Amino acid sequence: MPWNAYWWQQKANPTVKLRKYELAIQYLDSAVKYDRIAYFGYRAYTRCIHAKLYRQALSEFDEAILLNGRSGVMDHSYDFYKGLCHLQLNSFDSAYYYFSSSINAVVARLDESWVSPTEYFYLGIAEYERERWSHAIGHFDKALIIYPNFSDAKYYKALCLDKANSDKEALTLMLEAEADFRSGGTINEDAALYEQFPYQVCQRYFTNAIRRLSNSAVK
Questions:
Q1: Which of 25, 31, 188, 217 is at a distance of 20 to 30 A from 171, taking alpha carbons?
Q2: At 142, which CATH number?
Q3: What is the pTM of this model?
């Protein structure tokens, strides 16, 4: 059934999980060919999250907005993914704009309780990169209210506390974050089962941060 867009998308899925991204996008090209409205945004998502082709993904999300309005894919708005692309291209002001836009749209349509902790986390990351430590901490705290064991949010909050000269508090939180990480409390997006997300923390990050913060606390 070569005209069936859904089957082309299903054929792409296992190749994504094997990290054969060029082949996956080739299959998604066929899905888009037969159902442009349904799969154009999904192909942009694949370029962003999996293939990490951020400039191409930005262009495709812009076209997806023209096709589908300010819709979304895989539980997040197109603006959220545009924010991730800008974050990875070091366009931190633009990243902040699109993450804010995504969150504001959810709040306006539903209410704040529907906002994903992942979205607050990345809004905090945008502020962290802009060296607005207290603003970043506020966003990480919102993520942690929803997801108390979110080790990535605690890790970057601890870095912000350290930047704000609260090194002992930062060390305490970093140790707590590592314990949460060891218990599996990390980014819980579906694709995170087999894909590293931007700014997602690994054990090496904790080891290095705890060593450095321990030395600072002793001084």
A1: 188
A2: 1.25.40
A3: 0.94
